[in-house]
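Minutes, project check-in
Item: structure for the 146-residue chain
Input as provided by the requester:
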Amino acid sequence: MQAGPAALSVYALRLGPGEDILSTLVKFVKDKKLKSPFIMTCVGSITKATLRLANATASNTNKIVHLDERFEIVSLVGTLNEAPHLHICLSDKDGKTIGGHVVSDLEVFTTAEIVVGECDGLWFSREMDGSTGFPELVISSCSKTA
């Protein structure tokens, strides 16, 4: 499934210590009424994260890890529609990395500098995909004012 080309709108946010990245982004998208938001880039640090690791299936959501230490955000990518689908890569004090699907608890340590993009004229939604067993991205054309 594909759509485009589309014009791009860009928003920048800076979050401070103790703020939760995921809930702040969900609120930002709702408040701005964004229809096709996605993360363009993010740098910063966190003190908590809950991630689902790779190899998940619909019947086995695989290992969930709860991290409670300081990490640098190496990468944060994904879509932010009504059911955000974000993946993150984090680096610990020794430079070792861990990454996965963001479940919750992305608490900012010092800062999170986030750039959010929106594809004007497109709408991102999710529908259950029988072949994967997960709600997958659906891309539709729409009017920005719709």
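Outcome recorded: The chain has a mean pLDDT of 90.
No further action items on this chain.
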